[in-house]
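Problem 12. The chain below contains 409 residues. Write out its predicted structure in C-alpha coordinate notation.
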Amino acid sequence: MAPPRLDPHARGSSALAWTGWAAAALAVLAMAWVLVRRSDHPGQASAAVSPAASAPAPVAAKPGPVPALPAAPAAQGPGAQPSLEDVVRLGNSAVVEVETPRGWGSAFFVSRDTLLTSLHVVAGASYVTLHHQGGETSTAYVGDTSRDFDLAVLKAQSPRAGQAFLPMGAAAGLQPGQEVVAIGSPLRLQNSVSRGIVSGLRRMGPVLVVQTDAALNPGNSGGPVLDRSGAVIGISTFVARGQGVGSGLSFAVAIEHGKALVEGRPPASAVAAVDPALETPGLPASAPTESEQLQAQGARAYEAKMAWIAQRAGALDDYWHRFMAAGGWQGQAQGGFEHPWYALWEDRAMQGRAAPGFEQPYASIKDSAEAIRAAVLKAEEEARKADVLPGTRRELRQKYHLDFPGWGL
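Solution.
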Protein backbone atom coordinates (compact mmCIF):
# COMPACT_ATOMS: atom_id res chain seq x y z
CA MET A 1 0.00 0.00 0.00
CA ALA A 2 1.44 3.39 -0.96
CA PRO A 3 2.19 5.79 1.92
CA PRO A 4 -0.46 8.46 2.50
CA ARG A 5 -0.05 11.68 0.55
CA LEU A 6 -0.11 14.95 2.42
CA ASP A 7 -1.19 18.18 0.75
CA PRO A 8 0.68 21.05 2.37
CA HIS A 9 -1.87 23.50 0.98
CA ALA A 10 -4.71 21.60 2.67
CA ARG A 11 -2.90 21.98 5.98
CA GLY A 12 -3.03 25.71 6.30
CA SER A 13 -0.50 26.95 3.77
CA SER A 14 -2.11 30.37 4.13
CA ALA A 15 -0.21 30.60 7.40
CA LEU A 16 2.98 30.67 5.35
CA ALA A 17 1.81 33.52 3.16
CA TRP A 18 4.12 36.32 2.22
CA THR A 19 3.10 39.60 3.80
CA GLY A 20 5.79 42.02 2.90
CA TRP A 21 7.92 41.21 5.91
CA ALA A 22 11.63 40.99 5.45
CA ALA A 23 12.89 37.77 3.86
CA ALA A 24 14.88 36.87 6.97
CA ALA A 25 11.86 37.17 9.29
CA LEU A 26 9.79 35.05 6.89
CA ALA A 27 12.35 32.26 6.88
CA VAL A 28 12.35 32.17 10.68
CA LEU A 29 8.56 32.03 10.85
CA ALA A 30 8.38 29.31 8.18
CA MET A 31 10.84 27.14 10.10
CA ALA A 32 8.93 27.65 13.34
CA TRP A 33 5.64 26.76 11.63
CA VAL A 34 7.06 23.55 10.19
CA LEU A 35 8.29 22.50 13.62
CA VAL A 36 4.91 23.22 15.18
CA ARG A 37 3.06 21.28 12.47
CA ARG A 38 5.39 18.27 12.79
CA SER A 39 4.44 18.02 16.44
CA ASP A 40 0.76 17.57 15.51
CA HIS A 41 -0.91 14.23 15.04
CA PRO A 42 -1.28 13.42 11.31
CA GLY A 43 -4.64 14.50 9.97
CA GLN A 44 -5.47 16.84 12.91
CA ALA A 45 -5.43 20.62 12.82
CA SER A 46 -2.73 22.27 14.92
CA ALA A 47 -3.79 23.79 18.22
CA ALA A 48 -0.93 26.30 18.05
CA VAL A 49 -1.69 29.83 16.89
CA SER A 50 0.70 31.21 14.31
CA PRO A 51 1.71 34.87 14.52
CA ALA A 52 0.84 35.02 10.85
CA ALA A 53 -2.70 33.65 11.34
CA SER A 54 -4.27 37.07 10.77
CA ALA A 55 -2.04 37.97 7.85
CA PRO A 56 -3.62 39.33 4.66
CA ALA A 57 -4.40 36.96 1.77
CA PRO A 58 -1.26 35.72 0.03
CA VAL A 59 0.02 37.31 -3.11
CA ALA A 60 1.67 35.49 -5.96
CA ALA A 61 5.15 34.60 -4.83
CA LYS A 62 7.57 31.70 -4.72
CA PRO A 63 6.27 29.18 -2.14
CA GLY A 64 8.33 28.15 0.81
CA PRO A 65 9.83 24.65 1.27
CA VAL A 66 7.38 21.71 1.32
CA PRO A 67 7.33 19.94 4.71
CA ALA A 68 8.91 16.49 4.58
CA LEU A 69 6.54 13.52 4.52
CA PRO A 70 6.50 11.47 7.72
CA ALA A 71 8.15 8.10 7.48
CA ALA A 72 5.71 5.39 6.35
CA PRO A 73 4.95 2.69 8.94
CA ALA A 74 6.97 -0.48 8.40
CA ALA A 75 3.79 -2.47 7.70
CA GLN A 76 3.12 -0.30 4.66
CA GLY A 77 6.63 -0.41 3.22
CA PRO A 78 7.77 -2.30 0.12
CA GLY A 79 7.32 -6.05 0.39
CA ALA A 80 5.09 -5.77 3.45
CA GLN A 81 2.42 -8.40 4.02
CA PRO A 82 -1.22 -7.54 3.41
CA SER A 83 -3.65 -8.01 6.26
CA LEU A 84 -5.04 -11.49 6.85
CA GLU A 85 -8.48 -10.16 5.97
CA ASP A 86 -7.21 -8.96 2.58
CA VAL A 87 -5.59 -12.34 1.87
CA VAL A 88 -8.84 -14.13 2.64
CA ARG A 89 -10.94 -11.63 0.68
CA LEU A 90 -8.92 -12.10 -2.51
CA GLY A 91 -8.70 -15.84 -1.95
CA ASN A 92 -12.46 -16.22 -1.61
CA SER A 93 -13.07 -14.33 -4.85
CA ALA A 94 -10.80 -16.73 -6.76
CA VAL A 95 -11.82 -20.05 -5.14
CA VAL A 96 -14.83 -22.04 -6.38
CA GLU A 97 -16.63 -25.22 -5.41
CA VAL A 98 -16.38 -27.90 -8.10
CA GLU A 99 -19.33 -30.23 -8.61
CA THR A 100 -19.26 -33.44 -10.65
CA PRO A 101 -21.65 -36.40 -10.90
CA ARG A 102 -19.37 -38.21 -8.44
CA GLY A 103 -19.07 -35.55 -5.75
CA TRP A 104 -17.54 -32.17 -5.09
CA GLY A 105 -14.32 -30.44 -4.16
CA SER A 106 -12.56 -27.12 -4.66
CA ALA A 107 -10.54 -25.31 -7.32
CA PHE A 108 -9.00 -21.88 -7.79
CA PHE A 109 -8.34 -19.54 -10.69
CA VAL A 110 -4.72 -18.93 -11.67
CA SER A 111 -5.75 -16.77 -14.63
CA ARG A 112 -9.03 -15.40 -15.92
CA ASP A 113 -9.95 -18.68 -17.67
CA THR A 114 -7.73 -21.33 -16.03
CA LEU A 115 -8.11 -23.17 -12.73
CA LEU A 116 -6.13 -25.76 -10.80
CA THR A 117 -7.63 -28.57 -8.73
CA SER A 118 -6.90 -32.12 -7.58
CA LEU A 119 -7.37 -34.89 -10.13
CA HIS A 120 -9.33 -37.05 -7.71
CA VAL A 121 -11.93 -34.25 -7.47
CA VAL A 122 -12.73 -34.39 -11.21
CA ALA A 123 -11.71 -37.96 -12.09
CA GLY A 124 -14.05 -39.50 -14.65
CA ALA A 125 -15.61 -36.16 -15.64
CA SER A 126 -15.15 -34.22 -18.86
CA TYR A 127 -17.08 -31.15 -17.71
CA VAL A 128 -17.67 -29.78 -14.23
CA THR A 129 -19.90 -27.15 -12.64
CA LEU A 130 -18.23 -24.26 -10.82
CA HIS A 131 -20.05 -22.60 -7.93
CA HIS A 132 -18.73 -19.07 -7.41
CA GLN A 133 -18.69 -17.13 -4.16
CA GLY A 134 -21.66 -14.94 -5.08
CA GLY A 135 -23.89 -17.90 -5.91
CA GLU A 136 -23.33 -17.87 -9.68
CA THR A 137 -22.53 -21.08 -11.54
CA SER A 138 -20.50 -21.69 -14.66
CA THR A 139 -19.04 -24.62 -16.57
CA ALA A 140 -15.45 -25.70 -17.16
CA TYR A 141 -13.91 -28.62 -19.00
CA VAL A 142 -11.10 -30.82 -17.74
CA GLY A 143 -7.83 -30.12 -19.53
CA ASP A 144 -4.38 -31.52 -18.78
CA THR A 145 -4.10 -33.92 -15.86
CA SER A 146 -1.38 -35.73 -13.92
CA ARG A 147 -2.30 -38.86 -12.00
CA ASP A 148 1.11 -39.14 -10.31
CA PHE A 149 0.78 -35.63 -8.87
CA ASP A 150 -3.01 -35.67 -8.34
CA LEU A 151 -3.42 -32.50 -10.42
CA ALA A 152 -5.88 -31.30 -13.05
CA VAL A 153 -6.22 -28.11 -15.09
CA LEU A 154 -9.73 -26.76 -15.72
CA LYS A 155 -10.61 -24.31 -18.50
CA ALA A 156 -13.62 -22.05 -18.04
CA GLN A 157 -16.01 -22.30 -20.99
CA SER A 158 -17.25 -18.72 -20.68
CA PRO A 159 -14.64 -16.72 -18.74
CA ARG A 160 -16.19 -14.02 -16.58
CA ALA A 161 -15.09 -10.41 -17.01
CA GLY A 162 -12.98 -9.28 -14.08
CA GLN A 163 -12.54 -12.77 -12.69
CA ALA A 164 -10.11 -12.64 -9.76
CA PHE A 165 -7.21 -15.09 -9.75
CA LEU A 166 -4.37 -15.98 -7.41
CA PRO A 167 -0.63 -15.62 -7.97
CA MET A 168 1.39 -18.83 -7.86
CA GLY A 169 4.24 -18.61 -5.37
CA ALA A 170 6.78 -21.25 -4.38
CA ALA A 171 6.83 -24.00 -1.77
CA ALA A 172 10.51 -24.92 -2.00
CA GLY A 173 11.66 -22.05 0.22
CA LEU A 174 9.07 -22.40 2.96
CA GLN A 175 10.26 -22.46 6.55
CA PRO A 176 8.64 -24.53 9.30
CA GLY A 177 6.48 -22.22 11.37
CA GLN A 178 5.41 -19.95 8.51
CA GLU A 179 1.73 -19.05 8.64
CA VAL A 180 -0.58 -20.42 5.93
CA VAL A 181 -4.28 -20.19 5.07
CA ALA A 182 -6.37 -22.90 3.39
CA ILE A 183 -9.61 -22.11 1.54
CA GLY A 184 -12.14 -24.60 0.18
CA SER A 185 -15.57 -26.18 0.55
CA PRO A 186 -15.29 -28.77 3.34
CA LEU A 187 -18.55 -30.65 3.75
CA ARG A 188 -19.98 -28.28 1.09
CA LEU A 189 -19.51 -25.26 3.35
CA GLN A 190 -18.28 -23.03 0.55
CA ASN A 191 -15.40 -20.59 1.06
CA SER A 192 -14.45 -21.95 4.47
CA VAL A 193 -11.11 -20.70 5.77
CA SER A 194 -8.67 -22.44 8.10
CA ARG A 195 -5.38 -21.13 9.41
CA GLY A 196 -2.20 -22.92 10.42
CA ILE A 197 1.54 -23.14 10.04
CA VAL A 198 3.96 -25.05 7.84
CA SER A 199 5.03 -28.22 9.61
CA GLY A 200 7.58 -29.21 7.00
CA LEU A 201 8.33 -30.10 3.40
CA ARG A 202 8.21 -33.78 2.51
CA ARG A 203 8.77 -36.04 -0.47
CA MET A 204 6.23 -38.63 -1.55
CA GLY A 205 7.96 -40.30 -4.43
CA PRO A 206 8.54 -37.54 -7.01
CA VAL A 207 6.05 -35.19 -5.35
CA LEU A 208 7.06 -32.37 -3.04
CA VAL A 209 4.28 -31.75 -0.52
CA VAL A 210 3.76 -29.13 2.16
CA GLN A 211 2.68 -30.52 5.51
CA THR A 212 0.59 -28.09 7.57
CA ASP A 213 -1.64 -28.16 10.61
CA ALA A 214 -4.36 -26.12 8.85
CA ALA A 215 -7.62 -28.04 9.19
CA LEU A 216 -8.67 -29.85 6.00
CA ASN A 217 -11.80 -31.94 5.47
CA PRO A 218 -13.56 -33.65 2.55
CA GLY A 219 -14.28 -30.87 0.07
CA ASN A 220 -11.04 -28.96 0.69
CA SER A 221 -9.26 -31.08 -1.92
CA GLY A 222 -8.20 -28.99 -4.90
CA GLY A 223 -8.35 -25.72 -2.98
CA PRO A 224 -5.37 -23.42 -2.44
CA VAL A 225 -3.06 -23.12 0.53
CA LEU A 226 -1.81 -19.52 0.66
CA ASP A 227 1.14 -17.91 2.36
CA ARG A 228 0.72 -14.63 4.20
CA SER A 229 1.40 -12.61 1.06
CA GLY A 230 -1.64 -14.22 -0.59
CA ALA A 231 0.34 -16.38 -3.04
CA VAL A 232 -0.53 -20.06 -3.55
CA ILE A 233 2.12 -22.40 -2.18
CA GLY A 234 0.19 -25.67 -2.44
CA ILE A 235 -2.95 -27.48 -3.59
CA SER A 236 -4.80 -29.31 -0.80
CA THR A 237 -4.73 -33.03 -1.51
CA PHE A 238 -5.38 -35.23 1.56
CA VAL A 239 -5.35 -35.65 5.32
CA ALA A 240 -3.63 -38.60 7.00
CA ARG A 241 -5.34 -39.68 10.20
CA GLY A 242 -4.33 -42.35 12.63
CA GLN A 243 -6.89 -44.69 14.11
CA GLY A 244 -8.72 -42.95 16.93
CA VAL A 245 -7.05 -39.61 16.20
CA GLY A 246 -9.44 -36.70 15.85
CA SER A 247 -7.16 -34.30 14.00
CA GLY A 248 -4.87 -35.23 11.15
CA LEU A 249 -1.85 -34.20 9.18
CA SER A 250 -2.75 -32.03 6.21
CA PHE A 251 -0.82 -32.13 2.96
CA ALA A 252 -0.75 -29.95 -0.14
CA VAL A 253 1.02 -30.64 -3.45
CA ALA A 254 3.69 -27.99 -4.00
CA ILE A 255 2.42 -25.28 -6.34
CA GLU A 256 5.52 -25.68 -8.52
CA HIS A 257 4.05 -28.93 -9.84
CA GLY A 258 0.73 -27.25 -10.63
CA LYS A 259 2.40 -24.31 -12.34
CA ALA A 260 4.37 -26.66 -14.57
CA LEU A 261 1.19 -28.49 -15.60
CA VAL A 262 -0.54 -25.19 -16.45
CA GLU A 263 2.46 -24.18 -18.56
CA GLY A 264 2.60 -27.53 -20.36
CA ARG A 265 5.78 -28.72 -18.64
CA PRO A 266 6.35 -32.07 -16.87
CA PRO A 267 5.36 -31.64 -13.20
CA ALA A 268 8.18 -33.97 -12.13
CA SER A 269 10.88 -31.50 -13.16
CA ALA A 270 9.25 -28.47 -11.57
CA VAL A 271 10.85 -28.41 -8.12
CA ALA A 272 14.54 -27.77 -7.80
CA ALA A 273 16.50 -29.29 -4.97
CA VAL A 274 15.23 -28.18 -1.57
CA ASP A 275 17.58 -27.11 1.18
CA PRO A 276 18.23 -30.34 3.14
CA ALA A 277 17.94 -28.30 6.33
CA LEU A 278 14.32 -27.52 5.42
CA GLU A 279 13.16 -30.79 3.90
CA THR A 280 11.99 -33.31 6.47
CA PRO A 281 11.93 -37.09 5.98
CA GLY A 282 9.31 -38.12 3.46
CA LEU A 283 6.25 -40.29 3.84
CA PRO A 284 5.53 -43.38 1.79
CA ALA A 285 4.51 -42.60 -1.78
CA SER A 286 1.01 -43.82 -0.96
CA ALA A 287 -0.51 -42.42 2.20
CA PRO A 288 -4.29 -42.64 1.83
CA THR A 289 -6.59 -41.31 4.49
CA GLU A 290 -8.65 -43.61 6.68
CA SER A 291 -11.72 -42.70 4.63
CA GLU A 292 -9.90 -43.48 1.39
CA GLN A 293 -8.76 -46.82 2.80
CA LEU A 294 -12.36 -47.73 3.63
CA GLN A 295 -13.46 -46.66 0.16
CA ALA A 296 -10.74 -48.80 -1.43
CA GLN A 297 -11.78 -51.81 0.66
CA GLY A 298 -15.40 -51.26 -0.33
CA ALA A 299 -14.45 -50.97 -4.00
CA ARG A 300 -12.49 -54.24 -3.85
CA ALA A 301 -15.43 -56.01 -2.20
CA TYR A 302 -17.81 -54.57 -4.80
CA GLU A 303 -15.59 -55.70 -7.68
CA ALA A 304 -15.36 -59.23 -6.23
CA LYS A 305 -19.16 -59.39 -6.14
CA MET A 306 -19.45 -58.05 -9.69
CA ALA A 307 -17.02 -60.74 -10.87
CA TRP A 308 -19.06 -63.47 -9.15
CA ILE A 309 -22.36 -62.12 -10.54
CA ALA A 310 -20.80 -61.92 -14.00
CA GLN A 311 -20.06 -65.65 -13.84
CA ARG A 312 -23.71 -66.37 -13.02
CA ALA A 313 -24.77 -64.06 -15.84
CA GLY A 314 -22.55 -65.93 -18.29
CA ALA A 315 -24.03 -69.26 -17.24
CA LEU A 316 -27.51 -67.86 -17.77
CA ASP A 317 -26.46 -66.67 -21.23
CA ASP A 318 -25.61 -70.28 -22.16
CA TYR A 319 -28.91 -71.58 -20.80
CA TRP A 320 -30.82 -68.86 -22.69
CA HIS A 321 -29.17 -69.73 -26.02
CA ARG A 322 -29.95 -73.43 -25.56
CA PHE A 323 -33.52 -72.57 -24.61
CA MET A 324 -33.98 -70.48 -27.75
CA ALA A 325 -32.22 -73.02 -30.00
CA ALA A 326 -34.60 -75.70 -28.78
CA GLY A 327 -37.61 -73.60 -29.78
CA GLY A 328 -38.59 -72.80 -26.22
CA TRP A 329 -40.01 -69.37 -27.14
CA GLN A 330 -42.85 -68.75 -29.57
CA GLY A 331 -42.61 -65.20 -30.79
CA GLN A 332 -39.91 -62.53 -30.85
CA ALA A 333 -37.21 -61.83 -28.26
CA GLN A 334 -34.91 -59.09 -29.47
CA GLY A 335 -32.74 -56.24 -28.39
CA GLY A 336 -29.10 -55.29 -28.65
CA PHE A 337 -28.23 -56.37 -25.15
CA GLU A 338 -24.94 -57.47 -23.60
CA HIS A 339 -26.95 -60.28 -22.04
CA PRO A 340 -29.92 -61.47 -24.12
CA TRP A 341 -32.11 -62.13 -21.07
CA TYR A 342 -31.99 -58.38 -20.30
CA ALA A 343 -34.99 -58.42 -22.67
CA LEU A 344 -37.07 -59.62 -19.72
CA TRP A 345 -37.10 -56.08 -18.32
CA GLU A 346 -37.48 -54.20 -21.60
CA ASP A 347 -40.90 -53.14 -22.85
CA ARG A 348 -41.96 -54.95 -26.02
CA ALA A 349 -38.57 -56.67 -26.30
CA MET A 350 -40.19 -60.06 -25.80
CA GLN A 351 -43.43 -60.69 -27.67
CA GLY A 352 -45.02 -64.13 -27.48
CA ARG A 353 -44.94 -66.87 -24.91
CA ALA A 354 -43.08 -70.00 -23.89
CA ALA A 355 -43.69 -72.95 -26.16
CA PRO A 356 -45.76 -75.83 -24.75
CA GLY A 357 -43.56 -77.97 -22.53
CA PHE A 358 -41.02 -75.17 -22.01
CA GLU A 359 -42.92 -73.28 -19.32
CA GLN A 360 -40.74 -74.61 -16.49
CA PRO A 361 -37.39 -73.84 -18.20
CA TYR A 362 -38.69 -70.34 -18.97
CA ALA A 363 -39.71 -69.86 -15.33
CA SER A 364 -36.20 -70.96 -14.30
CA ILE A 365 -34.69 -68.30 -16.61
CA LYS A 366 -36.87 -65.62 -15.04
CA ASP A 367 -36.01 -66.74 -11.50
CA SER A 368 -32.27 -66.79 -12.26
CA ALA A 369 -32.44 -63.33 -13.89
CA GLU A 370 -34.28 -61.90 -10.87
CA ALA A 371 -31.70 -63.46 -8.54
CA ILE A 372 -28.91 -61.77 -10.52
CA ARG A 373 -30.75 -58.45 -10.39
CA ALA A 374 -31.24 -58.79 -6.62
CA ALA A 375 -27.52 -59.59 -6.17
CA VAL A 376 -26.52 -56.48 -8.14
CA LEU A 377 -28.83 -54.26 -6.10
CA LYS A 378 -27.56 -55.71 -2.81
CA ALA A 379 -23.92 -55.18 -3.84
CA GLU A 380 -24.81 -51.64 -4.87
CA GLU A 381 -26.35 -50.86 -1.50
CA GLU A 382 -23.37 -52.28 0.41
CA ALA A 383 -20.98 -50.25 -1.75
CA ARG A 384 -22.94 -47.07 -1.08
CA LYS A 385 -22.68 -47.68 2.66
CA ALA A 386 -18.92 -48.12 2.24
CA ASP A 387 -18.77 -44.70 0.47
CA VAL A 388 -17.63 -46.22 -2.82
CA LEU A 389 -18.05 -43.40 -5.32
CA PRO A 390 -20.88 -43.68 -7.88
CA GLY A 391 -18.41 -43.35 -10.74
CA THR A 392 -16.31 -46.21 -9.37
CA ARG A 393 -19.37 -48.43 -9.09
CA ARG A 394 -20.47 -47.58 -12.60
CA GLU A 395 -17.02 -48.32 -14.04
CA LEU A 396 -16.96 -51.72 -12.34
CA ARG A 397 -20.45 -52.59 -13.58
CA GLN A 398 -19.34 -51.67 -17.09
CA LYS A 399 -16.18 -53.73 -16.71
CA TYR A 400 -18.25 -56.85 -15.94
CA HIS A 401 -21.06 -56.03 -18.43
CA LEU A 402 -23.58 -55.50 -15.67
CA ASP A 403 -24.37 -51.81 -16.17
CA PHE A 404 -28.01 -52.12 -17.23
CA PRO A 405 -30.75 -49.45 -16.91
CA GLY A 406 -33.21 -52.17 -16.02
CA TRP A 407 -31.62 -52.50 -12.58
CA GLY A 408 -33.25 -49.19 -11.66
CA LEU A 409 -30.05 -47.67 -10.24
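Discussion. The first strand starts at residue 95 and ends at 100. Students who got a different answer should revisit the alignment rule from Section 12.3.
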